[in-house]
Amino acid sequence: MFDADWAAAQAAAEEELERWDEQGPGAVVLGIERGRLQLLAARGRAECGGAALDGTSVFRWASVTKHVLAACLLESGVLPLEMPLGAALPELAPAPAAVTVAQALAMQGGLPDTRESLTLLGFHALDRTDAAALLAWSAGIDRLNAEPGTEVAYSNGGYRLLEAALARRGVVFAEWVAARAGRLGLGMHASEHWSDPVPGLVPGHVVGQTGWSHGAQGMHLSAAGSLSGSAEDLALWLADLMPRPEFARMSRPLPLASGQATSYGLGLRLLQIGGEMVAGHGGAQPGYRAGFLCAPGEARALVVLSNRDDGDATGIAARVWARMRSTRLRRDAVGTWAPPGLYAAPGGDLWAEVKPGAISVRDAEEALFAASDGWVESAAPQSMMRLRCTDGAIVGEMFHKPVRLLPVSAGNGEAEAPELDGHWIGDGALLGIRGTRLRWGAGPRATDVALTPLGNGRWLFPAMGRRICLTRLAPDRVRLSLARSRVVEYRRL
Prior knowledge:
With 493 residues, the protein is of the alpha+beta class.
């Protein structure tokens, strides 16, 4: 049993929120214990200058949805954890069909992320796509990011497939959510698309050169991130879930196939705060941030929901929880641990950029913190890293795999001509290369960008706000990759 200083937590929450303009978008922090409200702090507005946010304000929960899908799957019992996905979705290609339900839930399936795969084919974030077409297209992809059970790497793709598999067995996620929400008196709601009406939903805000604007996305919202509700709704849902056996199973991390321990379970991750391992999850969608932590033994939950892109809901939750427990996160800011710049593995598509206090791996940034004996590490169980700089190279572990990354020298690309001239096609998408320039997109969306060499047949190029890695597999075959999708291939025409 761990004592809770809710007064200290209240003060910590208010300190976290006070840095924001009271008239702009903000966040709500809410804590409960044994069904009783213990903490409520709110700052900001539903719209700039509009109604004030409070515990009943409705936000998108983004990836917080994942643990709800896991609860639905476990309660229904129609998809055994050891069952391969192909048993419920026979149209799947052999590689994804062999991934088990447990591996898909625990980010161990190597399944490519749907959104990032679409990016690699030139789809913009606002381009609308529907569930049936996405499933049919995904089913035909017979490649994985990694061998199942060998790494924990975040991807939404498995949850989309699991939602479809549940429906094939007669369990429709949106209907299950509506039934649970009705029983508990909650406003928890599952949407199909961003444009679907959600009662009371506050707009999400992203900041640009001219100030705040509303976030949006066009891709169908799967059970990887389709839920919305208030902070009160989420806290009461957790209060009902925590005593159930499903929660205990979800919060038990799934080891890798080798038996190596992880800190990610079934839609839940475990974070160490002081001497306590705390279950929770976070989520992000354009203009929204969400996060929660909970301790089932004390029936205690802390929820943070924000309608701004820089809301850092998971960080706020962790810092407030630490103050509540009169402990600290054991996270010391990292200094200069490696020379800033680009690094790449000797082969394959693994690359990284070292930044002050962070590292971007395949264009996904993670904060780093000082560990012992000169090591640095991440705090996210779904993107575990433990690294150090030795003789100019970055060595250690990423995603539970050993890594060695070498600095990318400024001249290594000058001696390596791309030899990629021509037009390339991948699943109907086209790109053109001439010398060290790549043309991406068509018509008014077309952009002409430079290829930045990483060495050994790999280049980076910017597209749609991302840095994509192009890897030459053969003279007339290349692969494009991002952090969550490493399977999209193009062939020279």
